[in-house]
Amino acid sequence: DERARNILIKKYRPAAGIDPLSEWPEEAMEIHLRYDSDACRVRKFLREETDLTGMSLELLCAKASTVADRWLSQRLNDENEDGEPVSPGTVRRELIILKATVDHAMRTRRDLDIPINPFARDRLKWPSVNDMRDRRLTHSEWDKLLSHMEETPGEGKGGKGAVRESSTWIRDAVELLLETGMRRSSLLRLRWNDVDTANRTIFLKDVKNSRKPNSQKNIKIGMTSRAADIFERMRSEMKTIRLDDPIFTFRGDSVTNAFCRACARAEIEDFRLHDIRHETASRLVEAGWQQAQLMAQLGWSDPKS
């Protein structure tokens, strides 16, 4: 928790000019710790890679010539919880954590006399990532998927990160992903004062910056009339609303798990939650959007995206 909180301090203090630990209510801090992708990734890595994260920096750097190579070779041969090989993208994200940790130690712990960073790109051959996908969802498949975003007996009740799908809000979250093109993390960080249905705009904070992976940016995107209707209906269902309240209070894995169950019930194969963002982009291009408009809506900095 302490390491995850330190990530939030570093991330939000420059962007918002505040100290999250002292100025945020405790419930707001817990929400960000739960949903922030970087914090969750570090906590998952600490939980699963105990052999490596339990090693002292002195020992790590003393064996720099072998530790990093041995870990990388082993990690690329590991299997995930589904029994499939760990993807190169996952390994690269973990390498980013490791490299940043040692870089920080080299800057702040000069007494350790760390000669090199064993996880640096010029020392270790990072795996290349080729994760381009061309899976499209037809309009009939989308309608079928939404119709199956309802609870069936025994699902969505209890357990870590569980949520009642029958509340319809989890279905709303999935539909809003298509209507706006947002990432799951951006959607779940939304607060009521970020959404302006009158002017059809959404203010997204701390969006991933493809040009500067270690920084975030704030952007304003548009919303469709359907998205505005969803937000208005959700607002009307609330008894009381504070503008700084989060709109969604369930976890990201709850959305993903409900989505996967709905895909299984609808017999839709090889379609992931993040593919909805790609589907949005494809539909906007087909609707005649220009590249600059598309980049502004999706928050892309690199035209290659």
Summarize the helices and strands and which ones pair or pack:
Blueprint lengths: L1 H15 L3 H4 L2 H10 L1 H12 L1 H4 L3 H6 L1 H12 L12 H21 L30 H9 L21 H12 L3 H5 L6 E2 L4 E8 L7 E7 L2 H13 L14 H14 L9 H12 L4 H8 L7
Antiparallel strand pairs: 1-2, 2-3
Helix pairs in contact: 1-4, 10-12, 10-13, 10-14
Question: Could you describe the 3D structure shown?
Answer:
- There is one protein chain.
- The chain is mostly helical.
- It has 15 helices and 3 strands.
- The protein has helices at residues 2-16, 20-23, 26-35, 37-48, 50-53, 57-62, 64-75, 88-108, 139-147, 169-180, 184-188, 225-237, 252-265, 275-286, 291-298; strands at 195-196, 201-208, 216-222.
- The chain has a 3-stranded antiparallel beta sheet, with helices on both faces.
- Strand 1 and strand 2 form a beta hairpin.
- Helix 1 runs antiparallel to helix 4 and helix 10 crosses helix 14.
- The longest helix has 21 residues, at 88-108.
- The model is unreliable at 13-18 and 152-166 (pLDDT under 50).
Looking at this protein, list some descriptive labels.
15 helices, mainly alpha, 305 residues
Question: In short, what is this structure?
Answer:
This protein has 305 residues and is mainly α. 51% of the residues lie in helices and 6% in strands. It has a 3-stranded antiparallel β-sheet, with helices on both faces.
Poorly predicted sequence stretches spanning 5 or more consecutive residues: 13-18, 152-166
- End-to-end gap: 33 Å
Order of strands side by side in the largest beta sheet? 1-2-3
**Fraction of residues in H or I helices:** 40-55%
Number of helices: 15
Q: What general form does the structure show?
A: globular
What class do helices, strands and sheet pairing give?
A: mainly alpha
Our Rg estimate from Cα atoms comes to: 21 Å
Helix and strand run: HHHHHHHHHHHEEEHHHH
Query: What percentage of amino acids are in beta strands?
Result: 5-15%
How would you state the average pLDDT, rounded? 78
The profile of the biggest β sheet is: 3 strands, antiparallel
- Total strand segments: 3
